[in-house]
Design brief:
The chain has 321 residues and is of the alpha/beta class. The chain contains nine helices and 13 strands. The longest helix is centred in the middle third of the chain and has 19 residues.
Length: 321
Amino acid sequence: MKVYLGIDIGSVTTKLAAINEEGELVAFNYLRTQGKPIAMVQEGLRDIARQLPPESQICGVGTTGSARYLGGVIVGADVIKNEITAHAVAALRHVPNVQTIFEIGGQDSKMIILRDGVVTDFAMNTVCAAGTGSFLDHQASRLGISIEEFSSRALESKTPVRIAGRCTVFAESDMIHKQQLGHRIEDILYGLCQAMVRNYLNNLGLGKEILPPIVFQGGVAFNKGIIRAFEEALGTKIIVPPHHEIMGAIGAALLAQEEVSLNGHKTKFKGFEVSEANYHVSSFECKACPNRCEIAQISLDGKVIARWGGRCDRWERVEQN
């Protein structure tokens, strides 16, 4: 069986997805990155290898996410693409006429606008935690409930309270104040969902024409309270794909399939053996110009195999032979 592998390496989670020639998902996993992207990619590869039938052949690999270049060097990626492209490709596969994509992950959020199957605009929030999954996780932990219970209890709200959601600090203070006033936890939780949705639409949706069909992707799409808040705010149905949490990885796998099929070349995949290799990442300051960029480099058994991270292409992804 010919298989195409996609790897989405984010700051909070690492996702791997394997698809067959028909684009059907045949194996996947969803791991916490825990600040160890290399170790998590290696663990993910070991798990995927166990899931795949023995006769499977990896014919292409794609990487995406904030650590996509690092992942690409480790596995030998055929294509390395940004998250916007990967999420758009995956959403189009599931909903061919999609016009808007909401993607909310652990530490960033995105809005992608498509028209006639082409990305025409997008926005990203990478600096404020108020509109991300980590903020919801933190508040659930503070209230002593699981994130799954957060979702179900938020739906029980009858009279949600208004929470100031423009900033994580203000939102938490406001939640504590509402608790002290005696409001029900369910109403506070759903009020937080509404605040997060307002923040998302006011920031990322500013000046954008948000048209249905709308596809909601990312780990936060597990939260039914957020889905309901979006539907109430926009007055339209929100489509959540079956594997919304790994759509970036699925998109990377589809892009790898396209790349290999179009160019007809043999995959650069280094094999599942890389899951046992001893990689080391370090950095140094480039002094070639006043920018003083911090350059990251990855080594295998003491030998530098790639460098990246500058504003120019002096070091960018140059493999060291």
